Amino acid sequence: MTDLKRKESKLIKPSKSVTVPETIAERVLNFELEITGLISCVVVLGHFLLSSPLATKCLTLSYKVGPDAYDKGVDDFYFVGFWVVAFTFLRASIMKYIYHPLGRLVGIKPFGKRQRFAEQGFLFTYAGFFWSLGMGLLYVGDAYGPYWLNTSQYWIGYPHIYLTSLTKYYYLMQTAFWFQQIYVIHMEKRRKDHYAMVTHHIITIILLVSSYYTNFTRIGNAVLCCMDLCDILLSFAKLLKYLGFTTLCDVAFAMFAIGWPVTRHGFFTVIVWATYAEPDKYMDMLWEPAKGKYFTPFTQKLYLFLLLSLDIIMIYWFSLIVKVVYRVIQGRGAEDTRSDDEDEEEEGD
Fold it and tell me: How many structural domains are present in the chain?
């Protein structure tokens, strides 16, 4: 009788394909698109139909001081807060209505695999757009002139208080995106480097907010451009992997493996060195908030600590890249060593 009951219990046991929300993350994800879409619509309607001052702060840039010049202030947090929600809505929408249908069209049947395909698709779309925009700003310059491949321009003319509208849109939206990524990494399937990722995102947010407040958006833009290129290449390689283009995936990953040390260790090291060696050549390094000056020997040390902490995390990730390169050389193909085993989940889905 005992054996019979065990067999019956197995027969009535719910299958893995039955989606039952078991965690807070799953419950939130079930209504993510609707909740963020509703909030975004309320803000947009509040601005255009009701002329709500709060909604206007969320949708438009504050502190305009000239035809194309903007100062900074606490009201900028409304804009950042709105875009945290808006990016969540855009991400969910693009994944659901663009990349999931595309995944089905090309034959990616398991939902779990298609979900990861969609996640990488959104990241590829976002990073591609904002890297292109950031490089344009880096090359053309801001309200104070160009600073392409010229680290001395990070400090000459400091403080760089006023921003063009495009520069301010870019910087605040990038800040919002990284705040939103804290939410994303806790919603997605947790990877083996989860805590390294959380630490990286927190440091990035601190650097973005502090550099914006202390009028160092030039160096902040340069750092973002160093980081975003590799996100494009890695996401593209993963998209090719999910599409089944193994050889092209390996080629794309090779480009990523070359681009990583060049941008995230080569160019980034130049920026770190410039932060260490150049400021006192071009600045008085005095604490004068009334004049927009916040860079002193003490704040210089704080920035160096944050940048070097970021570098340590990237060195850890580069060690994982080397492992994948070794797999490719062995003919085993490129695979993200941070990912957990997906076979069981995909079989169930």
Answer: 1
